[in-house]
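Q&A log
Question type: sequence-to-structure
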Amino acid sequence: MSDLQIRRANVSDRAELLDVLNAVFGGAQKQPFDFARSHPYLFHDARVPDHTIALDAGRIVGCVGAYPYPMRIGGVTFRTAGIGQVATLPEARGRGVMTALLQTVCRELDGGEFDLAWLGGDRQRYGRFGWAVGGSTMRFEFFERYLPAAPDEAGVRPLDWAKDFGRLRDHVAALPDALAMPDEELLMLATGQPLTGWALGESFVVTSRGGGAVQFADGRPDEIALLLAHLLRLERRKPGDRWQVSVHCAAAPSPLLQTCLEHYGYMTSGPTWMWRACSLRPMLEKVCRAGAGRVACGSGELGLANTQTGEAATLVCRRGRFSVRDGAGEGAHRLTTTQLSEGCFGVFPPEMLLPGLPADSPFRRLLPLRHHLCRSFAL
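Response status: OK
Response body:
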């Protein structure tokens, strides 16, 4: 497509941009779609320029959103970009529009501003641009016979974001793994998605659209269990064979995880999103801080070099303390961006990407960095 123009969107592009996205995603789902209503936090004036657009003869034919957000992983704040709204109009597909957009966005991601980027998507589609499946989440399923009797409905009240938003904000701010959204955008997310929830005594639960999957919860484990029983009661009233509720949470101590351990029927675990390594040394320094508590002893060095960007850094462990220095020697592992992303955030054994790594290497406790990011933060 020789006359394709790639540039950042501006506020005057918003209406056309939304029309394109609504048409693409609405057509894929065979139902109307309204991004201005469902994702208002991504389309206010300050966020519109986070979209890179492709124009053919002055008409928007494709888009990629890259939204800068700080993200906590293991209590350490990373500079991240969330990728979303990856779309090409049907009549423009097969002409290199999305490749041109993603190549442009990836050059910006590798410019030094970001430690990592993340998205939800197809590995075969995004793997060649540097993303790898990774992270870790636990999914618990609950059945009526393993929960306490549902509480009196008079004692359970629905959350009202006009009054209860502070509870959600404070809970998210205290999580070791979470997206650090500005308050006004978190409120837009809660009301636009929408998130719904219920409170009982000192406790609350928050579910995603549809009500069957708990995304956030805090309080006393006994009260959280009663709220799960209430959720199941509400599910059973809906049409169809609804006989369970689920919880998605991190493998980290919390009242919600304690509740899950006492009452769940089935549990699975798996990756959360796709992750992409960006600025190598700054990212590795934060990975070291996030994983420092895993290692109490051990020494060694691990050189890593990105064959696509030319970046190189060496992880150093001395008596259980990690650090990073610039450059990597002859024995460094020379990897593509995708392979680095697999090694730092993926789900496979380290030796698949780092052959020769000693069995007692302290870096096996550091990499890959497994972390949970709530599905409600989907962009």
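Response note: Residues 24 and 85 are 10 Å apart (CA to CA).
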